[in-house]
Specification:
By secondary structure, the protein is an alpha/beta fold. It has helices at residues 4-13, 25-37, 85-88, 93-109, 131-140, and strands spanning 18-22, 45-49, 64-70, 112-122, 144-153, 157-158, 161-162, 167-174. It has two domains: 1-49, no CATH class; 66-174, Rossmann fold (3-Layer(aba) Sandwich), CATH 3.40.50.150. Helix 1 runs parallel beside helix 2 (25-37) and helix 4 crosses helix 5 (131-140). It starts with a helix and ends with a strand.
Length: 178
């Protein structure tokens, strides 16, 4: 679950207990700094630096109602704001990232209680990091209800210049078993 803005926004709009999880200590430190600056750090927030695909290492065993999985991606949907992305990516990056995304969403899925929701978000417009990621997930997991979500959102230009970035969203609900 990445993203300083998303974490802060969740705490601003909802009375929730929140686990901010990131494998990168520097990124997690930025999240913590931003939450502190916004006055949102409290005992409701747990900061965890670890691998989302390895929950046995960090998870306390309490199932989650909702998980926002802002998974690492190629950032193809934000290339207009970060044009250097085109030159920083290698040919196999998308395949490697898609594999990592699959491991992360599999690990996080196991933490949801029945009836819980996993929201998968990427800032990519590539099929491997969106629709294909979800189709492969559905092949590996039972008891999944695919709920309405925007799916693939392409970047757009407005009369005033660049508009929204490109993203992919999928909302998956864990059905009650048997």
């Amino acid at each position: 679950m990445r993203g300083c803005r998303k974490t802060g926004h969740l705490l601003e709009i909802a009375d929730v207990e929140l686990t901010a999880l990131d494998a990168d200590p520097e990124r997690l430190s930025r999240v913590e700094d931003n939450l502190s600056r916004l006055g949102l750090l409290s005992d409701r927030v747990q900061m965890v630096c670890d691998d989302a695909s390895q929950p046995k290492r960090w998870w306390d065993g309490r199932p989650y109602d909702l998980i926002l999985a802002d998974v690492p991606c190629s950032a193809s949907g934000v290339v207009r704001r970060h044009p250097d992305i085109r030159w920083l990516r290698r040919e196999n990056d998308v395949a490697n990232l898609s594999h990592l995304q699959g491991k992360i969403v599999d690990g996080l899925w196991s933490l949801l209680k029945p009836g819980g929701t996993l929201l998968i978000v990427t800032c990519s417009i590539f099929e491997e990091e969106g629709g294909l990621l979800v189709r492969n997930f559905l092949k590996r997991h039972k008891h999944v209800i695919v709920e309405d979500a925007p799916g693939l959102v392409f970047p757009e230009m407005t009369a005033d210049g660049p508009g929204q970035d490109g993203f992919f969203y999928a909302k998956l609900k864990k059905a009650a078993h048997g």
